[in-house]
Amino acid sequence: MKKLVIIVSFFLCASVAYSQTAKEYYNKGVALALSGKYMEAITDISKAIELDPKFALLYDTRGYCFQTLGEHKKAIEDFSKAIELDPNNALANYNRCNSYHMIGEYHKAIADCNRAIVLDQKNPHSFLYRGISYNEIGEHQKAIDDYTQVIELDSKYVWAYTNRGNSYQTLGEHQKAIADFSKAIELNPQYADAYNNRGNAKSELGDKEGSIADYTKAIELNPLYANAYYSRGNAKDNLGDKKGAIADYTKVIELNPQYADAYNNRGNAKDDLGDKYGAIADYTKAIEINPQFAEAYYNRAAVYYKESKTTLACADLQKAKELGLNQAIAMIDEFCK
């Protein structure tokens, strides 16, 4: 998608009447950008801007290079200059929308995408990024409407199906989510995220075996997919396969040693298998990673209590209560008087 923007700009160059020297720097910069040498491209395009500072296209293209490097504030400055020089520049509005989204300024992103859509109603990317920004501010139905518009413009736009599926999932419309994730998989059978997300939707509908199959496929496609191992561990645990769940949680921890939820859930599975000390060690590690993890304090308290370590249990329950876990209140009243 991004290379298309550069290529379009390159061919537009031929119709822009700026100096030959500036044009040479610009064309060289475009060639460098197309080969992934964005810093070098910025240098040449900056020289073109010094020679001819009144052409929006130059700022738009340099902004794209900054954007690709993650320099979104610099990109926004260039896109803003391009818009100042050419207020009807749909591409610059879309690109600035993208950068605002990337730095979390979602309302500004939406405003820019609104303008880009007014200027060019056939660009699916503007609808996509407006939808993503709507999703970030909790406007999930508006996001769905935008993703649907993307699909109407381009029925093979995989991200639109995946993002719409995620929004349906957030709204609890799991069957619709599954349909969208399935379409994304049909379009791209190597899309690990679509399998993982479809697994989540199936799990919400109680189809644990189906969710495990999807998580397994996601892991097959991406063996480093920690979230897929974690979700598969949860599904196995719910089906009573405690050892299988522990194996998956252990893999999550191997991939991401700071994954507190994996320690907590592995502790639960160990507790169910009678490994009380192993469970306590995992809850303790979860708390070490996240000292605000109320559930881990509560779970450790339950094991301490079963081990007749009442003082330790009550200390953990008190901490869970302070962190807002209502279940801890009843246990304190019953066991810690």
Give a short summary of the structure.
This protein is mainly α and 337 residues long. Helix content is 79%, strand content 0%.
Draw up the topology in text.
Layout: H1 2-12, H2 20-34, H3 38-51, H4 56-68, H5 72-85, H6 90-102, H7 106-119, H8 124-136, H9 140-153, H10 158-170, H11 174-187, H12 192-204, H13 208-221, H14 226-238, H15 242-255, H16 260-272, H17 276-289, H18 294-306, H19 310-322, H20 326-335
Verbal overview:
- The structure is a single chain.
- The chain is mainly alpha-helical and 337 residues long.
- It has a domain at 260-265 and 274-337: Serine Threonine Protein Phosphatase 5, Tetratricopeptide repeat (Alpha Horseshoe), CATH 1.25.40.10.
- The chain has 20 helices and no strands.
- The chain has helices at 2-12, 20-34, 38-51, 56-68, 72-85, 90-102, 106-119, 124-136, 140-153, 158-170, 174-187, 192-204, 208-221, 226-238, 242-255, 260-272, 276-289, 294-306, 310-322, 326-335.
- Helix 4 (56-68) packs parallel to helix 6 (90-102) and helix 14 (226-238) packs antiparallel against helix 15.
- The longest helix has 15 residues, at 20-34.
- The model is unreliable at 1-17 (pLDDT under 50).
